[in-house]
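User:
Hi there, any thoughts?
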Amino acid sequence: MLDTKCYAILDRYPEIFIHYVCQFYPMPWEWIEKYKYEFSTSPYDPLGSRNHWTYLSKNINLEWNLEKILQYEYFWNWTNLVRNENDRFRWDLESIEAVKPRIDVKEMLGNDHFGKLIYPTEALIQKYHKKKLSIYETHPDCDPSWAEKYNVIIEPPFEFREVTSAYKETPLDPNLIQDLDGYLNYHYDSHLEEKFYEIHCKPILEKHSLQEIFDSLFYSNNSDTISHGKWFFWSPMRNDRYGLIPLFEEKEEHSESPFPGIKEEWDPYRPVKKLPPDPSREFILIPNDTYKEGKERIQNIMEVELSGPRNSGKDAFTILLVSEKVSEVLKSFRLPEHRFYPAKLQHKKLQSKEKYFIFLLTKDSLLHSIDWSLPYNFIYRAQKTIYPEFGSRDVNGYAPRTEYYLWKYNIDNPPRSPEELYDLQASENKKNGISSRSGSSLLPSTILRTNDFDLYTLRGNAIVSEKLQMALEEKFPNESWFRSAGRLGI
Protein backbone atom coordinates (compact mmCIF):
# COMPACT_ATOMS: atom_id res chain seq x y z
CA MET A 1 0.00 0.00 0.00
CA LEU A 2 0.98 3.63 -0.52
CA ASP A 3 2.72 5.19 2.49
CA THR A 4 0.47 8.19 3.11
CA LYS A 5 3.14 9.84 5.29
CA CYS A 6 5.04 10.65 2.09
CA TYR A 7 2.48 13.37 1.35
CA ALA A 8 1.47 16.01 3.88
CA ILE A 9 -2.12 16.27 2.67
CA LEU A 10 -2.64 12.49 2.78
CA ASP A 11 -1.08 12.27 6.23
CA ARG A 12 -2.77 15.26 7.92
CA TYR A 13 -5.78 16.11 5.76
CA PRO A 14 -6.92 12.90 4.01
CA GLU A 15 -10.59 13.93 4.09
CA ILE A 16 -9.85 17.21 2.33
CA PHE A 17 -7.84 15.35 -0.32
CA ILE A 18 -10.77 13.02 -1.02
CA HIS A 19 -13.20 15.95 -1.07
CA TYR A 20 -11.29 17.68 -3.85
CA VAL A 21 -10.67 14.49 -5.80
CA CYS A 22 -14.40 13.77 -5.72
CA GLN A 23 -15.20 17.31 -6.80
CA PHE A 24 -12.72 17.77 -9.66
CA TYR A 25 -11.25 14.46 -10.82
CA PRO A 26 -12.95 12.97 -13.95
CA MET A 27 -13.62 9.72 -12.13
CA PRO A 28 -14.85 6.77 -14.24
CA TRP A 29 -18.17 5.28 -13.13
CA GLU A 30 -16.56 1.88 -12.49
CA TRP A 31 -14.45 3.49 -9.77
CA ILE A 32 -17.47 5.16 -8.22
CA GLU A 33 -19.16 1.77 -8.11
CA LYS A 34 -16.05 0.16 -6.62
CA TYR A 35 -15.77 2.70 -3.79
CA LYS A 36 -19.39 3.76 -3.34
CA TYR A 37 -19.46 2.65 0.30
CA GLU A 38 -16.01 4.09 1.03
CA PHE A 39 -17.24 7.51 -0.11
CA SER A 40 -19.53 7.53 2.95
CA THR A 41 -16.80 7.00 5.52
CA SER A 42 -13.89 8.90 7.04
CA PRO A 43 -10.31 8.07 5.99
CA TYR A 44 -9.11 9.47 9.32
CA ASP A 45 -11.46 8.13 11.98
CA PRO A 46 -12.29 4.39 11.70
CA LEU A 47 -15.69 5.08 13.28
CA GLY A 48 -16.44 8.35 11.53
CA SER A 49 -18.82 8.99 8.65
CA ARG A 50 -18.11 11.59 5.97
CA ASN A 51 -20.31 12.18 2.96
CA HIS A 52 -17.87 12.53 0.07
CA TRP A 53 -20.91 12.05 -2.19
CA THR A 54 -21.65 15.71 -1.46
CA TYR A 55 -18.58 16.61 -3.51
CA LEU A 56 -19.14 13.97 -6.19
CA SER A 57 -22.54 15.57 -6.72
CA LYS A 58 -20.80 18.83 -7.66
CA ASN A 59 -18.28 17.26 -10.05
CA ILE A 60 -18.82 18.71 -13.54
CA ASN A 61 -16.22 16.36 -15.05
CA LEU A 62 -18.21 13.13 -14.65
CA GLU A 63 -19.93 11.55 -17.65
CA TRP A 64 -23.39 12.46 -16.38
CA ASN A 65 -26.49 10.62 -17.62
CA LEU A 66 -29.91 9.73 -16.22
CA GLU A 67 -29.08 6.02 -15.84
CA LYS A 68 -26.21 6.71 -13.43
CA ILE A 69 -28.16 9.38 -11.58
CA LEU A 70 -30.91 6.85 -10.85
CA GLN A 71 -28.44 4.07 -10.03
CA TYR A 72 -26.99 6.11 -7.15
CA GLU A 73 -30.17 8.02 -6.30
CA TYR A 74 -29.88 7.42 -2.57
CA PHE A 75 -26.21 8.46 -2.42
CA TRP A 76 -26.31 11.89 -4.05
CA ASN A 77 -26.55 15.22 -2.33
CA TRP A 78 -29.52 16.43 -4.35
CA THR A 79 -29.06 20.10 -3.56
CA ASN A 80 -25.66 19.95 -5.26
CA LEU A 81 -26.72 17.55 -7.99
CA VAL A 82 -29.61 19.56 -9.41
CA ARG A 83 -27.33 22.61 -9.51
CA ASN A 84 -24.42 20.80 -11.17
CA GLU A 85 -23.41 22.99 -14.12
CA ASN A 86 -21.88 20.28 -16.31
CA ASP A 87 -22.18 20.49 -20.09
CA ARG A 88 -23.29 16.83 -20.55
CA PHE A 89 -26.70 16.73 -18.91
CA ARG A 90 -29.74 18.99 -18.55
CA TRP A 91 -32.94 18.30 -16.69
CA ASP A 92 -35.78 17.66 -19.13
CA LEU A 93 -39.32 16.39 -18.54
CA GLU A 94 -38.28 12.71 -18.64
CA SER A 95 -35.48 13.06 -16.12
CA ILE A 96 -37.50 15.33 -13.80
CA GLU A 97 -40.36 12.84 -13.73
CA ALA A 98 -37.89 9.98 -13.10
CA VAL A 99 -36.58 11.54 -9.87
CA LYS A 100 -39.82 13.18 -8.75
CA PRO A 101 -40.24 14.83 -6.22
CA ARG A 102 -36.56 15.65 -5.77
CA ILE A 103 -36.61 18.65 -8.13
CA ASP A 104 -38.76 21.74 -7.55
CA VAL A 105 -39.40 22.84 -11.14
CA LYS A 106 -40.94 26.17 -10.12
CA GLU A 107 -38.00 27.11 -7.89
CA MET A 108 -35.34 25.98 -10.37
CA LEU A 109 -36.88 27.50 -13.49
CA GLY A 110 -37.51 30.77 -11.68
CA ASN A 111 -33.82 31.13 -10.78
CA ASP A 112 -31.86 33.38 -13.14
CA HIS A 113 -28.73 31.23 -12.84
CA PHE A 114 -29.77 27.62 -12.17
CA GLY A 115 -32.90 27.83 -14.31
CA LYS A 116 -30.64 27.34 -17.33
CA LEU A 117 -29.96 23.79 -16.13
CA ILE A 118 -33.55 22.87 -17.05
CA TYR A 119 -34.53 22.24 -20.66
CA PRO A 120 -38.08 23.67 -20.71
CA THR A 121 -39.90 22.05 -23.63
CA GLU A 122 -43.52 23.00 -24.20
CA ALA A 123 -44.51 19.58 -22.84
CA LEU A 124 -42.72 20.39 -19.57
CA ILE A 125 -44.34 23.82 -19.33
CA GLN A 126 -47.74 22.31 -20.00
CA LYS A 127 -47.15 19.63 -17.35
CA TYR A 128 -46.20 22.09 -14.60
CA HIS A 129 -47.98 25.32 -15.61
CA LYS A 130 -50.48 25.03 -12.75
CA LYS A 131 -47.59 25.79 -10.38
CA LYS A 132 -47.58 29.36 -11.77
CA LEU A 133 -44.13 29.12 -13.33
CA SER A 134 -41.78 31.98 -14.05
CA ILE A 135 -38.78 32.07 -16.36
CA TYR A 136 -36.23 34.74 -17.21
CA GLU A 137 -36.27 36.06 -20.74
CA THR A 138 -32.50 35.51 -20.80
CA HIS A 139 -33.05 31.72 -20.56
CA PRO A 140 -31.72 30.24 -23.85
CA ASP A 141 -34.94 28.23 -24.38
CA CYS A 142 -37.50 30.81 -23.23
CA ASP A 143 -40.55 31.07 -25.50
CA PRO A 144 -42.46 34.37 -25.02
CA SER A 145 -45.68 32.68 -26.21
CA TRP A 146 -45.81 30.71 -22.94
CA ALA A 147 -46.92 33.87 -21.14
CA GLU A 148 -50.27 33.84 -22.89
CA LYS A 149 -50.71 30.11 -23.48
CA TYR A 150 -49.74 28.84 -20.00
CA ASN A 151 -49.78 32.00 -17.86
CA VAL A 152 -46.01 31.81 -17.37
CA ILE A 153 -44.37 34.95 -15.96
CA ILE A 154 -41.54 36.13 -18.21
CA GLU A 155 -39.04 37.90 -15.96
CA PRO A 156 -36.81 40.72 -17.27
CA PRO A 157 -33.00 40.30 -17.04
CA PHE A 158 -31.80 40.03 -13.47
CA GLU A 159 -29.97 43.11 -12.17
CA PHE A 160 -27.10 42.36 -9.84
CA ARG A 161 -26.62 44.75 -6.95
CA GLU A 162 -23.30 45.27 -5.26
CA VAL A 163 -23.32 44.10 -1.66
CA THR A 164 -21.31 46.23 0.74
CA SER A 165 -19.55 44.81 3.77
CA ALA A 166 -18.33 46.30 7.01
CA TYR A 167 -14.97 44.73 6.28
CA LYS A 168 -12.73 45.49 3.35
CA GLU A 169 -12.83 42.44 1.12
CA THR A 170 -9.66 41.96 -0.89
CA PRO A 171 -8.84 38.99 -3.12
CA LEU A 172 -6.92 36.28 -1.34
CA ASP A 173 -3.31 35.94 -2.41
CA PRO A 174 -3.24 32.64 -4.39
CA ASN A 175 0.32 32.03 -3.17
CA LEU A 176 -1.10 31.32 0.29
CA ILE A 177 -2.34 27.99 -1.05
CA GLN A 178 1.26 26.77 -1.01
CA ASP A 179 1.13 26.91 2.79
CA LEU A 180 -1.01 23.82 3.35
CA ASP A 181 -1.64 24.20 7.09
CA GLY A 182 -1.96 27.96 7.09
CA TYR A 183 -4.32 28.02 4.13
CA LEU A 184 -6.66 25.30 5.41
CA ASN A 185 -6.80 26.65 8.95
CA TYR A 186 -6.89 30.39 8.37
CA HIS A 187 -7.27 31.57 4.77
CA TYR A 188 -9.60 29.07 3.12
CA ASP A 189 -11.36 30.55 0.05
CA SER A 190 -14.01 28.54 -1.82
CA HIS A 191 -13.15 30.36 -5.05
CA LEU A 192 -9.69 28.79 -5.01
CA GLU A 193 -10.79 25.18 -4.56
CA GLU A 194 -9.84 24.09 -8.07
CA LYS A 195 -6.46 25.79 -7.81
CA PHE A 196 -5.88 23.99 -4.51
CA TYR A 197 -6.74 20.68 -6.23
CA GLU A 198 -4.27 21.43 -9.05
CA ILE A 199 -1.44 22.17 -6.59
CA HIS A 200 -1.92 19.62 -3.81
CA CYS A 201 -3.99 16.75 -5.25
CA LYS A 202 -3.40 16.36 -8.97
CA PRO A 203 0.38 15.66 -8.69
CA ILE A 204 -0.37 12.70 -6.41
CA LEU A 205 -2.97 11.37 -8.85
CA GLU A 206 -0.40 11.57 -11.64
CA LYS A 207 2.07 9.41 -9.69
CA HIS A 208 -0.27 6.83 -8.12
CA SER A 209 -3.36 4.95 -9.24
CA LEU A 210 -6.76 5.64 -7.70
CA GLN A 211 -6.85 2.13 -6.25
CA GLU A 212 -3.46 2.56 -4.59
CA ILE A 213 -4.51 5.86 -3.05
CA PHE A 214 -8.01 4.88 -1.98
CA ASP A 215 -7.01 1.51 -0.54
CA SER A 216 -4.35 3.27 1.54
CA LEU A 217 -6.85 5.83 2.83
CA PHE A 218 -9.93 3.68 3.34
CA TYR A 219 -8.39 0.46 4.64
CA SER A 220 -6.07 -0.49 7.45
CA ASN A 221 -2.60 -1.87 6.78
CA ASN A 222 -4.10 -5.34 6.99
CA SER A 223 -4.23 -6.41 3.32
CA ASP A 224 -6.33 -9.44 4.29
CA THR A 225 -9.21 -7.02 5.00
CA ILE A 226 -9.78 -6.62 1.27
CA SER A 227 -8.94 -10.12 0.09
CA HIS A 228 -11.02 -12.00 2.71
CA GLY A 229 -14.22 -9.96 2.55
CA LYS A 230 -15.19 -6.43 3.46
CA TRP A 231 -17.11 -5.17 6.47
CA PHE A 232 -19.71 -2.41 6.59
CA PHE A 233 -21.34 -0.15 9.12
CA TRP A 234 -25.10 -0.76 8.92
CA SER A 235 -27.92 1.59 9.85
CA PRO A 236 -31.42 2.37 8.53
CA MET A 237 -31.61 4.61 5.46
CA ARG A 238 -31.21 8.19 6.67
CA ASN A 239 -34.11 9.51 4.63
CA ASP A 240 -36.36 8.39 1.83
CA ARG A 241 -37.01 9.97 -1.57
CA TYR A 242 -39.24 12.53 0.14
CA GLY A 243 -36.47 13.58 2.53
CA LEU A 244 -38.21 12.03 5.52
CA ILE A 245 -36.50 10.05 8.26
CA PRO A 246 -37.99 6.56 8.91
CA LEU A 247 -38.20 6.86 12.69
CA PHE A 248 -40.67 5.44 15.21
CA GLU A 249 -40.92 6.25 18.91
CA GLU A 250 -42.87 5.01 21.91
CA LYS A 251 -46.46 6.21 22.02
CA GLU A 252 -46.28 7.34 25.64
CA GLU A 253 -43.58 8.99 27.74
CA HIS A 254 -42.28 6.80 30.55
CA SER A 255 -40.52 7.82 33.73
CA GLU A 256 -38.66 4.55 34.06
CA SER A 257 -36.16 2.67 31.94
CA PRO A 258 -37.56 0.03 29.57
CA PHE A 259 -34.86 -2.35 30.77
CA PRO A 260 -34.92 -3.14 34.51
CA GLY A 261 -31.61 -3.75 36.19
CA ILE A 262 -29.63 -1.14 34.23
CA LYS A 263 -28.17 1.36 36.67
CA GLU A 264 -29.46 4.90 36.44
CA GLU A 265 -26.07 6.49 35.71
CA TRP A 266 -24.43 4.10 33.26
CA ASP A 267 -20.91 5.05 32.21
CA PRO A 268 -20.52 5.73 28.46
CA TYR A 269 -16.85 4.78 28.78
CA ARG A 270 -17.85 1.36 30.03
CA PRO A 271 -20.74 0.05 27.91
CA VAL A 272 -23.01 -2.60 29.38
CA LYS A 273 -21.46 -6.03 28.75
CA LYS A 274 -24.57 -8.16 28.89
CA LEU A 275 -28.08 -7.83 27.59
CA PRO A 276 -30.73 -6.84 30.14
CA PRO A 277 -33.65 -8.91 31.41
CA ASP A 278 -36.85 -8.78 29.40
CA PRO A 279 -38.35 -5.28 29.15
CA SER A 280 -40.77 -4.12 31.80
CA ARG A 281 -43.39 -2.99 29.27
CA GLU A 282 -44.85 -3.66 25.86
CA PHE A 283 -43.38 -1.54 23.07
CA ILE A 284 -46.15 0.45 21.35
CA LEU A 285 -44.68 2.68 18.66
CA ILE A 286 -45.96 5.55 16.53
CA PRO A 287 -44.31 7.46 13.66
CA ASN A 288 -42.12 10.36 14.71
CA ASP A 289 -43.08 13.83 13.45
CA THR A 290 -40.14 13.65 11.02
CA TYR A 291 -41.74 10.67 9.30
CA LYS A 292 -45.04 10.95 7.46
CA GLU A 293 -46.85 7.85 6.34
CA GLY A 294 -47.35 6.81 2.75
CA LYS A 295 -47.50 3.74 0.56
CA GLU A 296 -43.70 3.57 0.07
CA ARG A 297 -42.72 4.69 3.52
CA ILE A 298 -43.42 1.81 5.89
CA GLN A 299 -40.05 0.17 5.60
CA ASN A 300 -38.53 -3.02 6.94
CA ILE A 301 -35.54 -1.40 8.67
CA MET A 302 -36.10 1.73 10.73
CA GLU A 303 -34.75 3.78 13.59
CA VAL A 304 -36.50 3.69 16.95
CA GLU A 305 -36.40 5.89 20.03
CA LEU A 306 -37.39 4.39 23.36
CA SER A 307 -38.79 6.49 26.17
CA GLY A 308 -37.23 6.97 29.58
CA PRO A 309 -35.21 9.49 31.60
CA ARG A 310 -31.75 10.49 30.41
CA ASN A 311 -28.97 8.07 31.39
CA SER A 312 -31.55 5.48 32.44
CA GLY A 313 -29.99 2.81 30.26
CA LYS A 314 -32.30 3.18 27.26
CA ASP A 315 -29.27 4.35 25.23
CA ALA A 316 -26.95 1.67 26.59
CA PHE A 317 -27.56 -0.72 23.69
CA THR A 318 -27.57 -0.92 19.91
CA ILE A 319 -31.25 -0.91 18.91
CA LEU A 320 -32.99 -1.19 15.53
CA LEU A 321 -36.63 -1.62 14.52
CA VAL A 322 -36.94 -4.47 12.00
CA SER A 323 -39.76 -6.38 10.32
CA GLU A 324 -40.25 -10.11 10.71
CA LYS A 325 -38.78 -10.59 7.22
CA VAL A 326 -35.58 -8.84 8.27
CA SER A 327 -35.41 -10.82 11.50
CA GLU A 328 -35.60 -14.05 9.49
CA VAL A 329 -32.68 -12.95 7.33
CA LEU A 330 -30.65 -11.96 10.39
CA LYS A 331 -31.34 -15.27 12.13
CA SER A 332 -29.93 -17.15 9.12
CA PHE A 333 -26.50 -15.61 9.86
CA ARG A 334 -24.13 -15.99 12.77
CA LEU A 335 -25.03 -13.36 15.37
CA PRO A 336 -23.61 -12.41 18.78
CA GLU A 337 -25.91 -12.40 21.80
CA HIS A 338 -29.08 -10.52 20.87
CA ARG A 339 -32.81 -10.21 21.52
CA PHE A 340 -35.92 -9.72 19.39
CA TYR A 341 -38.73 -8.05 21.34
CA PRO A 342 -42.20 -7.70 19.71
CA ALA A 343 -43.25 -4.14 18.90
CA LYS A 344 -46.70 -2.88 17.92
CA LEU A 345 -46.77 -0.15 15.28
CA GLN A 346 -49.80 2.11 15.48
CA HIS A 347 -50.32 3.90 12.17
CA LYS A 348 -52.53 6.92 11.72
CA LYS A 349 -53.74 5.93 8.25
CA LEU A 350 -52.27 2.62 7.14
CA GLN A 351 -52.47 -0.79 8.70
CA SER A 352 -49.46 -3.05 8.23
CA LYS A 353 -49.89 -6.80 8.51
CA GLU A 354 -46.14 -7.22 8.96
CA LYS A 355 -44.85 -8.03 12.45
CA TYR A 356 -42.08 -5.82 13.85
CA PHE A 357 -39.41 -6.35 16.47
CA ILE A 358 -36.97 -4.35 18.56
CA PHE A 359 -33.57 -5.82 17.62
CA LEU A 360 -31.32 -5.39 20.66
CA LEU A 361 -27.54 -5.93 21.00
CA THR A 362 -24.80 -4.78 23.33
CA LYS A 363 -22.82 -1.77 22.10
CA ASP A 364 -19.28 -3.17 22.00
CA SER A 365 -19.43 -6.85 21.05
CA LEU A 366 -16.43 -6.46 18.72
CA LEU A 367 -14.12 -5.38 21.57
CA HIS A 368 -15.20 -8.41 23.57
CA SER A 369 -14.44 -10.64 20.57
CA ILE A 370 -10.80 -9.53 20.23
CA ASP A 371 -8.11 -12.06 21.05
CA TRP A 372 -6.44 -9.97 23.77
CA SER A 373 -3.64 -12.50 24.25
CA LEU A 374 -2.02 -11.26 21.01
CA PRO A 375 0.13 -8.12 20.69
CA TYR A 376 -1.54 -5.19 18.90
CA ASN A 377 -0.51 -1.76 17.74
CA PHE A 378 -3.08 0.59 19.28
CA ILE A 379 -3.69 3.99 17.70
CA TYR A 380 -5.27 6.93 19.50
CA ARG A 381 -7.05 9.47 17.30
CA ALA A 382 -8.74 12.67 18.39
CA GLN A 383 -10.07 15.85 16.92
CA LYS A 384 -10.51 19.09 18.80
CA THR A 385 -12.06 22.30 17.56
CA ILE A 386 -10.52 25.65 18.48
CA TYR A 387 -12.85 28.55 17.80
CA PRO A 388 -11.28 31.92 16.86
CA GLU A 389 -11.99 35.02 18.85
CA PHE A 390 -15.34 36.51 17.85
CA GLY A 391 -15.01 39.25 15.25
CA SER A 392 -11.30 38.66 14.64
CA ARG A 393 -9.99 39.30 11.12
CA ASP A 394 -6.63 38.87 9.43
CA VAL A 395 -4.80 41.44 7.32
CA ASN A 396 -6.88 40.56 4.25
CA GLY A 397 -10.16 41.01 6.10
CA TYR A 398 -10.82 37.27 6.42
CA ALA A 399 -11.99 35.68 9.64
CA PRO A 400 -9.64 32.87 10.72
CA ARG A 401 -11.16 29.54 9.83
CA THR A 402 -12.00 27.19 12.68
CA GLU A 403 -8.78 25.39 13.50
CA TYR A 404 -8.59 21.64 13.90
CA TYR A 405 -5.87 19.93 15.90
CA LEU A 406 -5.51 16.27 15.06
CA TRP A 407 -3.71 13.70 17.15
CA LYS A 408 -2.74 10.29 15.88
CA TYR A 409 -0.14 8.33 17.75
CA ASN A 410 0.73 4.86 18.94
CA ILE A 411 0.16 3.82 22.54
CA ASP A 412 3.33 2.82 24.42
CA ASN A 413 1.57 0.64 27.01
CA PRO A 414 -1.28 -1.01 25.09
CA PRO A 415 -4.38 -2.27 26.92
CA ARG A 416 -4.94 -5.99 27.45
CA SER A 417 -8.73 -6.00 27.87
CA PRO A 418 -11.79 -3.92 26.93
CA GLU A 419 -11.84 -2.47 30.47
CA GLU A 420 -8.22 -1.31 30.20
CA LEU A 421 -8.98 0.17 26.78
CA TYR A 422 -11.93 2.17 28.20
CA ASP A 423 -9.77 3.51 31.05
CA LEU A 424 -6.87 4.40 28.76
CA GLN A 425 -9.09 6.24 26.29
CA ALA A 426 -10.66 8.26 29.11
CA SER A 427 -7.16 9.11 30.36
CA GLU A 428 -5.94 10.17 26.91
CA ASN A 429 -9.05 12.30 26.37
CA LYS A 430 -8.50 14.07 29.67
CA LYS A 431 -4.85 14.72 28.79
CA ASN A 432 -5.80 16.18 25.40
CA GLY A 433 -8.80 18.16 26.58
CA ILE A 434 -11.39 16.03 24.78
CA SER A 435 -14.71 16.31 26.58
CA SER A 436 -16.35 13.07 25.44
CA ARG A 437 -15.51 9.76 23.80
CA SER A 438 -17.34 10.77 20.63
CA GLY A 439 -14.43 13.04 19.71
CA SER A 440 -11.80 10.29 19.86
CA SER A 441 -11.08 6.65 19.21
CA LEU A 442 -8.60 4.15 20.61
CA LEU A 443 -8.44 0.97 18.57
CA PRO A 444 -5.92 -1.61 17.36
CA SER A 445 -4.77 -1.16 13.76
CA THR A 446 -5.78 -4.78 13.10
CA ILE A 447 -8.45 -6.85 14.88
CA LEU A 448 -8.07 -10.61 15.28
CA ARG A 449 -11.23 -12.25 16.63
CA THR A 450 -11.91 -15.27 18.81
CA ASN A 451 -15.23 -15.95 17.03
CA ASP A 452 -16.65 -15.72 13.53
CA PHE A 453 -19.91 -13.77 13.63
CA ASP A 454 -21.45 -11.90 10.68
CA LEU A 455 -22.50 -8.97 12.84
CA TYR A 456 -20.70 -7.03 15.55
CA THR A 457 -21.23 -3.75 17.36
CA LEU A 458 -18.69 -1.07 18.22
CA ARG A 459 -19.50 2.16 20.07
CA GLY A 460 -23.14 1.47 19.29
CA ASN A 461 -22.57 1.02 15.54
CA ALA A 462 -23.75 -2.20 13.90
CA ILE A 463 -21.07 -3.74 11.64
CA VAL A 464 -21.96 -6.52 9.19
CA SER A 465 -19.98 -8.91 6.99
CA GLU A 466 -20.04 -8.60 3.23
CA LYS A 467 -22.32 -11.66 2.98
CA LEU A 468 -24.90 -10.18 5.35
CA GLN A 469 -24.65 -6.77 3.67
CA MET A 470 -25.34 -8.31 0.27
CA ALA A 471 -28.32 -10.26 1.62
CA LEU A 472 -29.87 -7.17 3.22
CA GLU A 473 -29.34 -5.05 0.10
CA GLU A 474 -30.73 -7.75 -2.19
CA LYS A 475 -33.90 -8.45 -0.18
CA PHE A 476 -34.52 -4.90 1.10
CA PRO A 477 -33.00 -2.52 -1.47
CA ASN A 478 -32.56 1.14 -0.55
CA GLU A 479 -33.64 0.56 3.05
CA SER A 480 -30.19 0.50 4.65
CA TRP A 481 -27.29 2.91 4.80
CA PHE A 482 -24.00 1.06 4.42
CA ARG A 483 -20.56 2.57 4.70
CA SER A 484 -17.18 0.91 4.65
CA ALA A 485 -15.63 -0.33 7.89
CA GLY A 486 -12.30 -1.02 6.17
CA ARG A 487 -10.28 1.19 8.52
CA LEU A 488 -11.10 -1.16 11.41
CA GLY A 489 -8.95 -3.93 9.97
CA ILE A 490 -11.36 -6.73 10.88
